[in-house]
């Protein structure tokens, strides 16, 4: 009787171990994928008073996945850009949100909203017409790719940009999803959700005037005045010299060749 009970116990132990191993293996297969958002390519464009601060929001994943939706929250300096900017900010889709046209159609749309007067919410939708969401979505892997390009008008260029992610918004980890199973529209949560550092670039020098005057027909005197300069190292001056390789002909529409020095 003892031997029989021992054999039953041994077989039961092996069975339990086997079930545990299978369950653990299944969990490893269905392990969730991490998503990371970061900023890149921050720059000032335009000329005062129509200057803009532009940057890319990048995304990457810890393993290959088919991107579905996301939502990020971006804090910014209201002294530099104003408040509640969702109606004036220019947001365009990055390569991650490009249309998919093979085997059907999959399309992404960006939606900006004001989460607060100093916090911009950027989210996206995904719709498809075809067999399934997995095959009509874009891949996201460990290589960062542009999720969205953001262009904000500068109202006060004596300020710093102070652009950063807010990862403390309630249920932010419930808003990032991917298609998890080939040939289906099954979705999973990206988890965990992580964020890169912010952009705190100084905004540009504000130029009031710039003039050039000839001195004895041999030299040029440059004069300029600035209203503000934040962390300005200095100025670089370039001149253009016309190449005297042939006689000018006023009737010749060919552009003159200019050499920058």
Give a quick summary of the entry:
The chain has 261 residues and is mostly beta strands. The chain has helices spanning 2-29, 78-81, and strands at 35-47, 50-61, 65-69, 71-75, 90-93, 105-116, 119-129, 138-140, 145-153, 164-165, 177-179, 187-189, 193-195, 206-215, 219-228, 240-242, 258-260.
Radius of gyration: 29 Å
Gap from first CA to last CA: 100 Å
Helix content: 10-25%
How many domains is the backbone divided into? Answer: 2
For the secondary structure, the number of strands is 17
Text of the CATH class of the largest domain? Mainly Beta
Total helical segments:
2
User: Biggest sheet, in brief?
Assistant: 5 strands, mixed
Outline? elongated
User: What percent of residues are in strands?
Assistant: 35-45%
Mean pLDDT: 82
Architecture (CATH level 2) name of the largest domain: Sandwich
In the predicted model, the low-confidence regions spanning at least 5 consecutive residues are: 15-29, 254-261
CATH T-level topology of the largest domain: Immunoglobulin-like
Which structural category do the helix and sheet elements fall into? mainly beta
Strand arrangement within the widest β-sheet reads 5-9-2-1-13
């Amino acid at each position: 009787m003892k031997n029989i009970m021992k054999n039953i116990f041994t077989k039961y132990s092996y069975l339990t171990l086997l079930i545990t191993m299978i369950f653990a293996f299944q969990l490893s297969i269905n392990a969730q994928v991490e998503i990371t958002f970061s900023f890149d390519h921050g720059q000032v464009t335009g000329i005062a008073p129509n200057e803009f601060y532009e940057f890319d929001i990048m995304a990457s994943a810890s393993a290959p996945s088919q991107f579905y939706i996301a939502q990020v929250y971006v804090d910014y300096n209201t002294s530099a850009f104003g408040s509640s900017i969702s109606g004036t900010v220019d947001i365009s889709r990055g390569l991650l949100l490009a249309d998919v046209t093979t085997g059907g159609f999959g399309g992404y749309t960006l939606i900006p909203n004001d989460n607060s007067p100093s916090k911009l919410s950027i989210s996206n939708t995904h719709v498809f017409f075809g067999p399934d969401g997995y095959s009509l979505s874009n891949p996201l892997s460990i290589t960062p790719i542009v999720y969205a390009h953001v262009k904000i008008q500068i109202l006060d260029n004596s300020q710093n940009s102070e652009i950063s992610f807010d990862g403390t918004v309630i249920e932010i980890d419930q808003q990032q999803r991917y298609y998890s199973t080939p040939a289906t529209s099954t979705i999973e949560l990206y988890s965990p959700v992580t964020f890169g550092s912010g952009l705190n670039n100084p905004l540009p020098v504000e130029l009031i005037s710039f003039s050039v005057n000839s001195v004895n027909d041999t030299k040029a005197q440059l004069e300029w005045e600035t209203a503000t300069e934040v962390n300005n190292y200095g100025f670089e001056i370039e001149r253009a010299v016309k190449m005297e390789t042939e006689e000018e002909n006023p009737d010749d529409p060919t552009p003159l060749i200019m050499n920058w020095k």
